[in-house]
Structures
1.
Amino acid sequence: MAKYRKNNFPYLITVLSVVLISLGIFISKRNVSYSKCANTLSCEESLNFSINNDETAVFNGEIIKPPEIDLAQIIDEPKVLGEETAVSDKRIEVDLTTQTLKAYEGEKLYMESKISSGKMFPTPNGEFTIWRKIRATKMSGGTGNGYYYLPNVPYVMFFSGSKLSAGLGFSLHGTYWHDNFGHPMSHGCVNMKTRDAKKLFEWVDPPMTPEQKQSEPGETGTKIIIYGKAP
Amino acid sequence: MEKHHNKYYLILTLSGIFLTTGLVLMAASGLKKDVSVTTDLAYDAKTEIPFKEEEADIISPDGKYTLTVKKGMELNGLVPQSFYISSEKDSSPIKIFEKNSKPENMISVPENTFSPDNKYIFLKYDEQGKSRYLVLRTNGEEIRNGVPTVEFEGLFSEKYPEFVITDVTGWGSYSLIVINTDTIDGKTGPSWWFDLSSLTFIRLSSRFN
């Protein structure tokens, strides 16, 4: 009997390991819907403010010149921390089915615009908040024909939620490398026309500091609700 | 007793049928009347107010350029359309294109008309039952030496007769226009880039919906 038990011990360990690993995968799939970073390279590098006016961009195999950003002008740009009212009833709704963004203050529609959601990777559904606003940053990722390198991405509003960690780098942002709004084009982020992104950036919480603003403890960014299914 | 019941049911059913028929006939005559009135009004509108002069602005995605489309009065069955570009730096508009078209063939401006760098626009018009697409430079210059504009539906159907363009959605990059197609027998076809730098078409493995 003792021999029988001893011989079966490795099998028992294997079975237990398989069960535990399966359970782990099951739990992680349930709780973390998106484990993939929105921009595979820049996510690991940095999600911080950066302006690179001397660099060229790469998108869809084309080498392109990004619009220059004048840092001197940024200082004069929008609202500074403290100008906003303390209580905000702002929310952003993104309908992936119609590729449309609507921003509301209470029941009042502030703006509506066409967007481009994820084509290569899906834009996550759910309820999120903006945790950081950056006037510009660099985004890069992909491989082979899908490689992209985009300095000076303007008006970036990173969002996160209980099932989407901040480090994954999902955001709403301006777009200078395509004009195909109303159709999925991105790697998971919500692409906006630059003029629409600017308008939204200046309106959403957390309120602005000149270069970069991250929500402080106890401070909440504007709520984003993303729903529907991209065509 | 049962016979009486049957009689009542028969009367009730017949009344119902007559009532329904009456209502249907009344509704049908009413609809006919409505249709004829609408047709008359449409005809009057067309004859009395042909085409007003109109002007519309389309702003580029970055807000730096404006395309202004001016539509003139219809003359001898043709409507003149002029296209102007102005920018943040130079607010005085330059005329980049003009055309006189029959009312049914007038040029429209697609949603994503501006190239991302604002150097080009594309326009759409119908001709001989097909949608045609025209690309222009926003500085008014020729696309290439001796080539003022490029109409790429013609280029495409000549090169790929087995496909038909169903939609042109916008710009995939600075010089790549996104085209969706169907096969000639009506099945969903692939998406393509129209590469403006080489005037060629690139077939894509994924479709842009």
2.
Amino acid sequence: MSDSNGMGSRQSWPELILSARPFLGATSRSKETALDYLVQFSRPENSAAVVTAAVRQGVGAIAPMNDTTLLQALDLARAGCRLQVCPIIPNALGYVRDATDHGMIGAGLKHLRRLSLGEMLGIGLRGLTDLRRIMVRDFRALLPILIDVEMAAFKRFQPRLVLLHGQVTDIAVALGNKEALRIFADVVRRRFGAEPGLVTNNFGALLKSLGQWRIDIDVIVAPFNPKGFLMKPTKQVCEALLKETDKYIIADRIETAGADSLKDAFQYLRGLGIASAMVEIGAAADVDSVVASRHNGGTGTSGGGLHLPQGSGGRVQSAGRGPSTESARASEG
Amino acid sequence: MSTRVAIAGLGKMGLMHSAIVSASPDAQVVAVVDPQPQLAHYVKSLGLDAPFYTSVEQMLERTEVDAVFVCTPGAAHLPTAQACVQRGVHVFVEKPLADTLDNARRMYDLVKDTTIVHAVGYMKSHYPLYQKMRALAQGGTLGRIHQCHCTVYLSQVFRSPKGWVYSKDQSGGGIIINSTCHLLFLLQWFFGHVTGVFARGGSIHSEVEDVATIILEFESGVVASIDTSWGVPGYTVEHTQMLIVAEGGSLEITDDRARLFLSRDAGEYQQGWTPFHRSDFDKAPVDLSSDYGGEGYCNEDFEFIRCCATGAEPLVSWRDGLKVQEIIEAIYRSLGGGYVRL
């Protein structure tokens, strides 16, 4: 949890985090599998069963997006197990779809209209006229409101980590929009008392920008897999940057459409010293094999610690790559 | 020297191309254009810190640009292209080339005898996976190709929709010209000249066609069937599938993966199944939309920027875009009649 100054403090995150992609009918597996998932997980109790089984086998958290059925599933699962929720906001696909119909501004207004009058007043808005005024004037003024709208669905889970969707992160970085990332981090820390994190498919560009902009965000979710899929700009560059960074890295897209076995994927992550990973699990029966792959190939150990790669110099903390220098300084202070 | 780029049309595709151009080490966005003046402050706060104009003509008068990315509704492609070409500016247009065949011809006439670099956004041709599969299909590995069964599905229209995409006056039509056109490009890129078209389809929720079933005949002897709809549940992003049936086996291709089956060894491939995945080939340095189009958009924009610097012809020129437009026009004629010969 961040401290009151908004500086990140020493943190570790679960070794296995359940990806919500299968529950939304999006998976790195085949389209046929995706459609099967979509049908299966249209009933929240089916998603809840997978989540509950995963948590009971040691999966430490789930990273959902703002989807009504999935949120119902999380409520059901929460009744049966302790569940750590790390939301990914916003639901970028929803915005893209709405932008097709309504344009960029119209899409934003559509989402904002979901706010109740009470919620609008709570964030200093008098109504839709105010919303439209802000929407057409300034994305930076709009961003805290969008975060509020998205987080309204997740407040009940009291998230410790809130992640910015990869498409938003990557477009912000490409356009040099450092204020967007700064505002996101600030709002997540101050208003929700959570640690901000960034999902990306452009690890190299993101690290470079965070360094140049001196933005204190310690958690990055990025693709790391043996084939180098979505490791941008290249697998070699990402691996080299990983050795130098003090950010806490959560590996994403660790399976490449079945091209790599999970055991190989976890072995690869272990070699890199990455202790946390997003995993796609589409059936309760699959939970055991995923957890076993982790132990056999392993990012972590059955004792919950991490085997440090040789030469890591102890930078890797109890369950992940270390905190940022800013965070370390704050802790030392 | 860095290529100076203007973006015309600031919808989702304009924003996407702005971000990719900004990520290129060889180009910079120097101007943005949209007819809605209220977008000016908004796009600036998104990080697009370039002068904003409400018309392309105004932008061209006041800003030195080498190239324009046209991301407007299809009906605005021709006038925007005319303004750019008059000033010798290179032009990339989002797909389709134009809203009508007549306008597409006029666009190609603008550039055909010039040194202007022109490209159209059929980005699937820039997927390394499709490039590999095209080489495989054309290289004789499969033997004689007989059929190609295709689907293009999208979960987008389930009630009366709003937006320029669903207006024939602004976009030129419905699912065929807006989404299926990607597949039409791929088919003629794989199999060559289309000689005949038969199509049936119509509207369910829109004023334009929401569904269609199409038969294409190719000079090469291949016959392709297409089922397409943007009202099918389960397809959050557009999903294209091609199943090529040939004398020596079959080849199934989607945006993410492909499966080759051979009844006997052929070239470097053994009898039986061979799987492929986009991760086998993707080398794009940037991916801003991994769920749809990621490496395609990046490769396409970076290639266009390189061509602007060197004068080379892009992979998909307006001549190629015109071929697709001829097929689209034939399909629309067939929807209201019978078999159409090209």
3.
Amino acid sequence: MLLDEQLIAHMAARDEAALVELHRRYAPYLAAMARRMLRDPDEIQQGVQDAFVKAWDNAHRFDADKASAKTWLVTLAHRLFINRLRGRRLTTVPLEQWDAPSQPPDHVERIHMREAVATLEPDERKLIELAFYQGHSHRELAEVTGTPLGTVKTRLRRALGKLQQHLKGGDA
Amino acid sequence: MSDDTLIAYALGLLDDHEAREVERHLESHPQDAARVREHLESLTAVVLSEAPEPLPDGAEAALLERIREQPSVDEDHEKVSAPPPITTLPRRPRARSWLALAATLALLAVGFGALRPLATDLWVGWRVNRYQARAGAVTEVLTDAGGERLGQLVRLTDNRLLVAMDEPPPRRQVYQAWEIAGDTLSSRGTWQGRLFAIDPLAANSTFGVTLEPPGGSAQPTSTPLLLFPL
């Protein structure tokens, strides 16, 4: 089975089969993200399709030595969705500077990711979801949750720190 | 730059202006760039830990239909990719620099809707030239059974190939690459434009190309355009 990064290299060479395979691997997860962010079924479908068209168009820019394909794809899709959510034009995304090549997330890896998310306290998880899926700024998060701004920032830092620690294999 | 700002950037909370400022900062601050990478990896994990959502029937077909409605591959690449940055041109051999410069000028022309065929030729030539410049690269002319030229192939020492066809496939068809190793026939991918890079083929295998319906076929459905023993 080809790595995600190899699929993107094939996409850069205009291999439609590679696009279809990447779509098979990740579209259901991007659709789940889109559902949380966009909610409207038509917008979800359109948003996921937009993400893969953008990946297809930008595959030749992807650097497999520097970027994880799944992080590249998820971030690319998230930026599209959040801008669709806000109804404003696209922002630029630095696609070249991310982590090392990786395999598609298999069952074990997904379990590991779920375990990482499970390490979050309910208030931390809520903040992450409100910020990441709904695009609320720090200040808006403070208003929405009735929490002091400084506490919001601290909890976000702590939440991401926990995720990173768990994903790196340390105790969370 | 504060970690709160880097987190806000990773979460996509910054406006365009703020995001560009962060991106400029990251270019010269690798430690902060590494922090952003970590945050993005964590957020990716959040997304991939969610239950996947079933896709509607026809999602793949709709995606393929949409990308096929876009400008052809070579044209699209010419607009956005690859010629080396101007600052690196002086380090390159003179002939290649001139070629890259010509390609760049052609890209500008493409932006105004002119000289597209010329730009396509320059782009293909530039890519072929880059492969040919690698140590041990061998260039072969591809012909059909009647000896008519179809394109060229650059073969690297590890049996990686760059195929440059003289013409794109006919409308509503794609080129499909095949590897024949012993009794085993396997697809090596499809492409719509003129250029296709192929991962290393087995030694002593045969490389073939057919025209297939969009998306490719499990087995060849047409007479091979070419068969090329490696």
4.
Amino acid sequence: MNQQSATAGWEVVIGLEIHAQLATRSKIFSGSATAYGAAPNSQANLVDLGYPGVLPVLNREAVRMAVKFGLATGSTVARRSVFARKNYFYPDLPKGYQISQYELPIVATGTLDILLEDGSTKTIGITRAHLEEDAGKSTHEGLGAASGIDLNRAGTPLLEIVSEPDLRSAKEAVAYLKKVHTLVRYLEICDGNMQEGSFRCDANVSVRRFGAEKFGTRCEIKNVNSFRYVEKAINYEVARQIDVIEGGGTIVQETRLYDAAKDETRSMRSKEEANDYRYFPDPDLLPVELGQDFIDAVRATLPELPDEKANRFCADYGLSRYDALVLTASRELADYYEAVVRASGGAPAAKLAANWVMGDFSGALNRDGVDVADARVPADALAGLLARIQDDTISGKIAKEVFEAMWADGASADAVIEAKGLKQITDTGAIEAAIRAVMEANPKQLEEYRSGKDRLFGFFVGQAMKATQGKANPAQLNDLLKRLLAP
Amino acid sequence: MSLHTLSIAELSAGLARKDYSAVELAQHFLDRISSSNPALNAYITVTAERALADARAADAALAAGTAGRLTGIPVAQKDIFCTDGIRTTCGSRMLDNFISPYDATVVERLSSAGTVLLGKTNMDEFAMGSSNETSWYGPVRNPWDLSKVPGGSSGGSAAVVAARLAPVATGTDTGGSIRQPAALVGISGIKPTYGRVSRYGMIAFASSLDQAGIMAPSAEDCALFLQAIAGFDPRDSTSVDRPVPDYAAELSTPVKGLRIGILKEFFERGLDGVTGALVNAALEQYRALGAELVEVSCPNLPLSVPTYYVVAPAECSSNLSRFDGVRFGHRCENPRDLIDLYKRSRGEGFGAEVKRRIMTGTYVLSAGYYDAYYLKAQKIRSLITADFKAAFEKVDLLIGPTSPTPAFGLGAKVDDPITMYLNDIYTIGANLAGLPAMSIPCGFDGHLPVGVQLIGPHFGESRMLSAAHAYQSVTDFHRRMPAAYV
């Protein structure tokens, strides 16, 4: 359906609740490991199993990570925050309650800037971010009529990041989600792996007529775990809500589930069926009291943040805003880029390096599904290739071929150029000889060109390039052709 | 042989002198348990083999010269403390089949001190009760009169010490569960400051109130055992990292000059005639010992029972959610689906009093009622704590009755929860404020013992124990034993 026309006259209001799994080695309230993919229940100790008599002990590392996030988003880091119990029964929730934060979260009222499609930036409010433990997983596959429970994930630390309802389209929601995704990875507090569920979100979506003062009734779409699905789920939900209202119906506040296979959201439970979670402060845990010293020490560990880095790339390397944002979208890519620039002699090579990192290099990463760290062309190797472009040893076109060869077997640019004989021909005599051979082989075209058919120039460029296996220096070839073809 | 009449210090000295071995000592108590426990029903589980193994290890340590002060001393554990490889029931059908895979910190510390585990004592189900009648394993009987209750919830521990089926026992106290039964069976019982003893491995009833303590004939016995279990535990976030004094060494601190506050609210109303008279006699004894008696007031204290019966059920309703039939404990037969599994496992596994409190607690935490009940109760709790704090600016200790009456008849109050709850009227305040408190015997109402209660400021255990010890140095109520068990 055409989104543009379907939403005409309607304002979309979206708030996101993002769950970022904190990259601590052990769980938030127990010493169990948090590694993904271990055999079921091999990473669940008595605390995780909710055995009688066991008690939670807060992992300070999780607190440090939450504070890091708070400081990076200009939020208020609470000097005193309180863990609360969220009570409900479910087999994958061993204690019958989830330890979370309710009235007094560790982080409150921050902001994050996102870039809109028209190139302007928009500030999105962060209501709060609080620490909580994840639940386990119920599995129903391969167990016949029975259900299995895997408590490896139970007790994994999560930072729930709640935005203000400031987002006005699915695209803005995705831009914000990506921005948070970038930030948590910069801060090294979350691996951002969406497939493994380390980074996921719930979207609160409502619509209202433009100009309306009150928000419409919202629906919450649960647990969407890819950027693409977030966009599709929101777009579906917006269209659904408008259809309902325009059809004379009303929106019921409810929780909905996105079905990616059918590209639709389905009702999960209504507000009436919602649990009364009976939140109350967890008496097993003391309030988290943070001193200024602790907060200052965490502040000292903050890396250069994405926005700061992008600004610096614009200023120092003369990059466009767009290029700077693409290159700083991940800390690894930005570091790689800077390493290439450094090895290429600095700012003069910055634009060329940017084109290559964003172009062939990123393309190869995506194509082969590898991370920057595992790339087969390390930064100094790419710099070696760029040097050969800059000193006219090879053309940009040949360089692409050299890059692919480097990517395939990890060889240096010089080795590839040498082995394949790709060194550019800059010997005027050799180029002239090749041109003269082409002219002799194509007398008809030569005559037509000389009688005024200018566009045949390209034909001679192509033929001469072919004759030199593409190795002729393009500028020299051009100059010589012009001179020799002249009547 | 009358080893059961000896104090901990005497037993320790006897073991060191090799007057008897730890195995002989353990066997002596095991024999007494065999003959007397059937009528008292004070132990749920007797760990005879474990006791003899512990005792052999103790004898080896004694022979090797590596023994500590408590090596070889038999002890009974309330069945609320998890014991590795030993059934831990918490007095509930829910945990009838539960073999704990780990030791509570209290158990671990007493084991490493070389004590000998005799068994696990009966208790009100999940420590909810004041008479030991809510236990799935049946009521415990008071050794002074088998028709009477021993108090609760640590009724089994109280009875085994009173009948000398163990020289000492652990207990837990959420609203008076150490002090009230101690008073009703004529022994000493101390509930330390909240955070003094680790709660790790102690099955939770109301986490912000629960505290482990010691029940034994004398304050001196309590001091020796408290020493072994007190101290910071990194596994309990609410335990306090603060040095533990040498309680035994400080026992002889004189009472002279001690300022003891008489809590006005404790003496105003509802104090049974004989109990009141005996408590007043104890005050006079302290005056005679050189204490200065000062009347003080905690005006919000009369609100402690209703406050407690909001806070404790609220916490228990959440704490007991883990008993769901999924991972351990009772599971109903052939559940139809998940909801049926929950409903029937919990419906069958929990008794009436536990259900009553879960329902009360669920109600006071519900949307729309939270502010009116839970939040208000927490505010009153703060006021009560502030009252005590102000009182302790004027005095060193507070004194009052432990229980409004001596032991009552089995079945006398089971159908009237409110009357039952009022049993804790004098003890709950210390739990709400997290204060250390103890009950010591101060006389008899007919053939039934009566206790007097001391309450100290936070971490004031040492002063409280020495005051109790001074009183016991000039009285012998704590040495008296029910005739049938001498």
